[in-house]
């Protein structure tokens, strides 16, 4: 189900003071929850996270948490970062298992941006969405939703209902009849002309 694995250790102490002590030893506090089981406090070596987290695939793929006695499979659900340091303060993991359908935010990647017809004609690209929430089976979660904008013209836009997603993947906003705009090409002269238009008085 996954190519990502990381060593973890259960932890008994909770609270801010315990977390600060843990971080001073080079460990990061975390919690594992979900699947109808009690939440489990755990700790992971900060150096291992520095290797794992730069890989964007880690955020949409199943992670195997390897404990001294047993394993758990999970998704990264939340990461709390230091306000100004490249340092992980805390992580949340959600337990998952084969066959389960889960919700996850995945990034949107735009293809053929440099050859887009509307941009080549002088239009300005507006990205209304950079990610979208999807539902998909564990093991088939897309790493990204790819959208080809090569033929998009000035004045045109694309909405969620107009794109094709992998089999088994559901775009959750559409389940709520929220057909969000994803991307559009604007005419840059529209804004300039509006600013130059003379004011009218009653």
From TrEMBL:
One of its GO terms (cellular component) is cytosolic large ribosomal subunit. Keywords: Ribonucleoprotein, Ribosomal protein, RNA-binding, rRNA-binding. One of its GO terms (biological process) is translation. Residues 102-189 form the Large ribosomal subunit protein bL25 beta domain. Coiled coil: none annotated. The keyword DNA-binding does not apply. It comes from the Bacteria. Transmembrane segments: none annotated. The keyword Ribosomal protein applies. Residues 6-93 form the Large ribosomal subunit protein bL25 L25 domain. This is one of the proteins that binds to the 5S RNA in the ribosome where it forms part of the central protuberance. Part of the 50S ribosomal subunit; part of the 5S rRNA/L5/L18/L25 subcomplex. Contacts the 5S rRNA. Binds to the 5S rRNA independently of L5 and L18. Belongs to the bacterial ribosomal protein bL25 family. CTC subfamily. NCBIfam families: bL25_bact_ctc, PRK05618.1-2, PRK05618.1-5, PRK05943.1. This is Large ribosomal subunit protein bL25. It comes from Acidithiobacillus ferrooxidans. The gene is rplY.
């Amino acid at each position: 189900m996954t190519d990502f694995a990381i060593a973890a250790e259960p932890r008994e102490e909770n609270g801010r003071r315990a977390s600060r002590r843990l971080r001073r030893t080079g460990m990061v506090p975390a919690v594992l929850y979900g699947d109808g089981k009690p939440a489990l406090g755990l700790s992971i070596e900060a150096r291992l996270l520095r290797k794992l987290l730069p890989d964007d695939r880690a955020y949409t793929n199943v992670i195997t948490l390897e404990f001294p006695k047993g394993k758990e499979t999970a998704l990264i659900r939340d990461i709390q970062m230091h306000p100004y340091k490249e340092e992980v303060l805390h992580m949340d993991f959600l337990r998952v298992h084969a066959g389960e359908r889960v919700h996850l935010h995945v990034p949107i990647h735009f293809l053929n941006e440099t050859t887009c017809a509307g941009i080549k004609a002088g239009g300005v690209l507006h990205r209304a969405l950079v990610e979208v929430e999807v539902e998909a089976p564990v093991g088939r979660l897309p790493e990204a939703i790819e959208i080809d904008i090569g033929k998009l013209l000035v004045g045109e836009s694309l909405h969620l209902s107009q794109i094709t997603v992998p089999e088994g993947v559901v775009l959750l906003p559409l389940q709520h009849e929220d057909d969000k705009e994803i991307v559009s090409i604007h005419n840059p002269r529209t804004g300039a002309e509006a600013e130059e238009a003379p004011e009218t008085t009653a």
